[in-house]
Structure formats: structure tokens, C-alpha cells
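Observation: inputs received (chain + 2-oxoglutaric acid).
Thought: call the complex predictor directly.
Action: predict_structure
Action Input:
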Amino acid sequence: MAFEVTVEHKQSLQEDGIVKLPGLIDDVLLDELNRCFGWSVAHPGPIAAGSPEGDNVFFVDNANPEARPMYRNLVSNSPFGRIAAELWGSEYVGYYAEEVFWKTGRSMATFWHQDTVYSQWGGEHWGNFWIPLVEMNAEYAIRVVRGSHQGIMYDGTTFNPKDPTDPLWGDAGDFPRLPDISADIEKDPTSWDVAGFDVEPGDVVVLHPHCLHTGGGADENLPERKNLVLRFFGDKSFFSDHLPKTKDRGLYDHEPIPATSGGYLQDGDPYRPEGTLQANAV
Ligand SMILES: O=C(O)CCC(=O)C(=O)O
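Observation:
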């Protein structure tokens, strides 16, 4: 039976910035996701971070151009486009790219951050489909500061293990420095209103990428943590020119983005890059 998006799912995504969709993925799609994950780990792309070798792996790959046909094919054979359309009430759903996380042994958490301070994404209709490939409890899974998708844009982190709030843009930008949310929570567990879920393979967690979010590490309680993220956007998404114009462009290379209508995307344009897969087409 097709997964049914409920009023509660839509409300949770709108208000909290996160929702869990239990059992959305069937066994066939799960096998395919595991196959794609294995391929990504074996073929790191140009902006992969960490190494997939050794006992304590921290490996993240992001938007590998070589992987694009494989993930596009997966997305067009998945219910993800329809689900995003229903969650948002959007006619158009575009597929953006994948991100792959593999942590083993003793491996650090993904520090608290917002994706939007790394990317030219604006608007309500952006969604990370965060997909666990092993069972994990909420402490190890993805967690967000509830409602932060509607809040301040903080500076990014450079993911420097010595300083989780080391500013990505610093003086080149005009963003407040990230608070040290992990340290705050350690001192006082009620200092931030955090939302997250226990998950198992088959579940999907959807979050708005402007949410302050973190992902757990690996340790003796979870010696292997594997998950994928597939990103989508809808009618209410636009190109937002909010990143500082600096030669040092942070973690990513932000080249102008060719638009389907010709030319390049400009501030406020509907987000419709050339070559986008319309992901809700059936
Ligand atoms: O799973 C993780 O460790 C982090 C996920 C994340 O940063 C994201 O979904 O953008």
C-alpha cells in the first residue's frame, strides 16, 4: 500500500522543521539505497571529506557529479518526489543531489550547523530526505533545534574538530557566530529545544536544511553509522544570493548556476537549474 502523508506529518514539518516517515522505504528500494551507498564510498567525489579507510572512519561525500545519473535513476524509481509534493502541497519537485555519511569505530559527530549558509537556497520548499541504513536511536540520528528553520542564519562551521563553531565565513560575512549547542546542552539539557527520533532502515526523516541540525558519531554503542541524504526543492524555493563574495568560497565552489530559462540564476529567481530532474513526475 502506498505511504500516506497525514495532516500531522505536514504540520510537524511546517512547525518543527522535521518529520519522521516510518516505513516509507520498501525492501527493494532499501537494497538499491545500500548499493548506491556502497558505490559512493568506493568512488569519492571532488569534495569528499575524510577517508573511507581504517578503523575509525569519518567519511562524507557530497554531490558527486559521477554519481548523479545513479541517484537520479534511484529518485525517479522512488516515492520521494510524490512525498515531497504532498508534504509541501507543491506541484513541482526538483531533485538536487546526494550526501553520504559513513562513520565507524570511534568517530566524531557532525557538528551543529545549517546547510543554507553553505548554499544559495532560499524559501520554504527545501527538504533533506535523511535516510538511515542502520538502526540507531535519536542520540545518534539526525536532530534539529525545533523551529529553527524559521530563525536566524548563523555563520557555518569549518568542522574543525578543535572548535565546533570555528566560523566558515568570519569577517567576509555578516552572520552571527554559531552558538556551541552541544556544550550548552551538556551543561543544561533543556537549554535548546531539540527534536529527533529513533530510526531503523525503511524510515525517512525529512528536515528543512535551514534547521540547526547535528548527526551523531560512532562509538562502542553504534560501531557503524551509515546514512544517506537526498535533497529536494519545490514551488516555494528560490535562488538566494546571500553568500559572501570572497575568493575563499568556504567549503564549496559556488559557480553561477545556469537556469532552465537561459542565463544564470539571479537573487530571488525560482530555483530551476538547467538539467534538474523533476522528481514528482509519475
Ligand atoms: O547525518 C549526519 O551526520 C548529518 C546530516 C546532515 O548534516 C544533513 O542532513 O545535512
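Thought: report the result.
Final Answer: The longest helix spans residues 27-42. The pocket of 2-oxoglutaric acid is lined by residues 101, 110, 115, 128, 130, 142, 213, 215, 227, 229 (CB under 6 Å).
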